[in-house]
TrEMBL record:
Region Disordered, annotated ranges: 345-370
Pfam family, one: VanA_C
Residue stretches making up the Rieske domain: 7-111
Protein name: Aromatic ring-hydroxylating dioxygenase subunit alpha
GO molecular-function term, one example from the UniProt record: 2 iron, 2 sulfur cluster binding
Keywords attached to this entry: 2Fe-2S, Dioxygenase, Iron, Iron-sulfur, Metal-binding, Oxidoreductase
Origin superkingdom: Bacteria
InterPro entries noted in UniProt: Cholesterol_7-desaturase (IPR050584), Rieske_2Fe-2S (IPR017941), Rieske_2Fe-2S_sf (IPR036922), VanA_C_cat (IPR044043)
Organism from which the protein derives: Noviherbaspirillum sedimenti
Alphabetical list of PROSITE patterns matching this protein: RIESKE (PS51296)
Length: 370
């Protein structure tokens, strides 16, 4: 089950163009994304209202203002309205596909999957450092996982796995296992924050581009919502203020990443991520190595999570036992459960509209499937 009243990353901005539609399954909803010649991004239901043909299989036409169904040539504009039906002079009044609120921001394309009346772009989370002048973007990527979205959240929220899964970012194994953990929840119950402190620890390989005097004081802070997770990692020389409780840290090595986990369908997820750092700005050689490490880390996660999902599916009656390191992940699961319950209580799941006189035809086309 999914939480629909939320903004989700549907694509990297570079994936959406005015030359070819982009098909994507988001929370079980088939969507198609395209860009007008003026650069505006549109998101429509990927289903022609005539006979259910995926619109993503057809071309973008009319200077990027509409999609053409490849089956009978019907055209739908960015509002979802059918603007052309080649086989007749009039267009049926209900020949309109669904549209979704969509916003392009910070190299991501965001889509709202729930009630459009409450879609507020101001609630889209920040996905990078506040001060862009002192940070540079070194990585932007999209992977697909054959795993439930909540399982991916569990993995990211439990950073003790870094010591065993990730060769690039693990650093001091003992420090990772023994790190101090604090957890808090926002008053509105829509965000969970956690922080870990790793004092006097060995710098990980990922930090090799920055020279410390010896060991370093590391921090790992994260804010989690239904849209994704903002992770702020970094280190300063021992005793230089990294762990004094301040939200303002200057110098050292700092790394911001946004991890957007968007459910695709039951048991499948999209994983979008970016990466910013404050060191070696403009040095493409170093940035390329950091990008390689970023990609490697997410692949290492996938190698763990996908077999885990398979085994969990094979043993549905067996329990799982949590450890103290799972506290942040459990807090996030409680948040998700509360939001899902509130959404289900507020409104019943949408039911397909019945088109008078056409229900029997639809049953014939689908073989009676419901």
């Amino acid at each position: 089950m999914f939480i629909y009243d939320s903004w989700y990353v549907a694509a990297l901005a570079t994936e959406v163009n005015s030359e070819k539609p982009l098909a994507r399954m988001i929370l079980g909803k088939p969507m198609v994304f395209f860009r007008t010649d003026e650069g505006q991004v549109a998101a429509l239901e990927d289903r022609c209202m005539h006979r259910g043909m995926p619109l993503s299989a057809g071309p973008i036409c009319n200077k990027g203002r509409s999609l053409q169904c490849p089956y009978h040539g019907l055209e739908f504009d960015i509002t979802g309205a059918c603007v052309k039906a080649p086989s007749q002079t009039s267009i049926p009044r209900n020949m309109q596909v669904l549209t979704y609120p969509v916003v392009e921001r910070d190299s991501f394309v965001w889509v709202w999957t729930g009630d459009p009346e409450i879609a507020d772009p101001a609630t889209i989370p920040t996905t990078g450092p506040v001060n862009d002048d002192t940070f540079g973007l070194f990585s932007l990527l999209h992977l697909e996982y054959k795993a439930d979205w909540k399982l991916i959240y569990d993995n990211v929220m439990d950073l003790t796995h870094l010591a065993y899964v990730h060769s690039v970012v693990n650093g001091d194994v003992q420090a990772n296992v023994e790190a101090k953990l604090t957890i808090s929840t926002d008053d509105d119950g829509k965000r969970v924050r956690f922080a870990r402190e790793l004092p006097n620890s060995v710098p990980p390989d990922l930090y090799a581009g920055f020279v410390f005097k010896g060991n370093c004081d590391r921090w790992q802070e994260m804010e989690c919502s239904t849209s994704g997770m903002q992770l702020w990692n970094g280190a300063l020389d021992v005793g230089c203020g990294a762990l004094d409780g301040s939200r303002v840290r200057v110098g050292g090595f700092q790394l911001y990443t946004y991890q957007a986990v968007t459910p695709s369908s039951e048991g499948n997820s999209h994983y979008f991520s970016n990466g910013y750092t404050n060191v070696h700005l403009g040095n493409e050689e170093v940035f390329a190595k950091m990008r390689e490490g970023h990609i490697k880390t997410l692949y290492e996660d996938r190698v763990i999570i996908e077999p885990q999902q398979v085994r969990l599916n094979e043993t549905p009656g067996r329990p799982v036992v949590s450890l103290s390191a799972d506290a942040a992940g459990l807090a996030v699961r409680r948040m998700f459960k509360k939001l899902l319950t509130a959404e289900m209580e507020k409104k019943a799941p949408p039911r397909p509209a019945r088109s008078s006189g056409h229900q029997d035809l639809m049953e014939e086309l689908t073989g009676g499937a419901r």
